[in-house]
Design brief:
The protein has a domain at about 1-45. Strand 4 and strand 5 form a beta hairpin. The protein has one helix and six strands; from the N terminus they run ββαββββ. The strands form three sheets. The protein has a two-stranded antiparallel sheet with strand order 1-2. The chain has a two-stranded antiparallel ribbon with strand order 3-6. The chain has a two-stranded antiparallel ribbon with strand order 4-5. It is elongated, with a radius of gyration of 30 Å. Helices cover about 5% and strands about 35% of the residues. By secondary structure, the protein is an all-beta fold.
C-alpha cells in the first residue's frame, strides 16, 4: 500500500456490484446500495443531505382501462443546458393499481479529505529478446560482386 491521496471532486468509477457509474468518493452505491468502503476514515465528513426530494403517488382509479407510463429524470445546469436524461422505467398501470415515485438529489461536501488506499503493483520487466543467432551458410560462397 502506498500513501493516501485526496479524491478528485466529480471523478467517477464503476460499481463492482451493479456496474452503474458512480462517484469515486461514494461509500455506498446509490444504485444497488451495496457498501463499497468500510471504516471510520471513509465515513468522516461524508454525510449526504437530500437538498431536493419529490415524492408522489399515481393511482388508476378510473376503471377506464390500463394506463401506460414512462418515468423520466432529466438534469439541467444553470444555463438550462441538459446534462443528463434517463428513462428510469416504463410500464402499465391496470385499474385499481398504484405506483409510488421518489426522486431525490443528495449532496455531500467534495472537499472533505478522505484516505484512499492505492495498491502499488510491482513493475514487471519485459523479458529480454533472445540473442541474435548466427547464420551458418552451407553450400558455395556467394559469387563476387553479387549482393546477398
Amino acid at each position: 500500500m502506498s500513501a493516501a491521496r485526496a479524491g478528485e471532486p466529480g471523478r467517477t468509477r464503476t460499481c463492482p456490484h451493479c456496474k452503474a457509474t458512480i462517484l469515486d468518493s461514494a461509500d455506498v452505491c446509490p444504485q444497488c446500495q451495496h457498501h463499497l468502503r468500510f471504516g471510520a476514515a471513509s465515513q468522516a465528513g461524508r454525510q449526504s443531505e437530500a437538498v431536493f426530494r419529490l415524492e408522489g403517488t399515481v393511482a388508476n382509479e378510473t376503471g377506464g382501462g390500463v394506463w401506460e407510463y414512462d418515468l423520466v429524470v432529466a438534469l439541467y445546469d444553470a444555463r438550462g443546458a441538459q446534462l443528463a436524461r434517463q428513462v428510469v422505467h416504463v410500464g402499465a398501470l391496470p385499474p385499481g393499481d398504484v405506483r409510488r415515485c421518489l426522486v431525490s438529489l443528495d449532496v455531500r461536501p467534495a472537499d472533505a479529505p478522505r484516505a484512499v488506499a492505492e495498491v502499488s503493483v510491482p513493475r514487471r520487466t519485459p523479458p529480454r529478446p533472445p540473442a541474435p543467432s548466427r547464420t551458418v551458410r552451407t553450400g558455395p560462397p556467394p559469387a563476387p560482386g553479387k549482393g546477398r
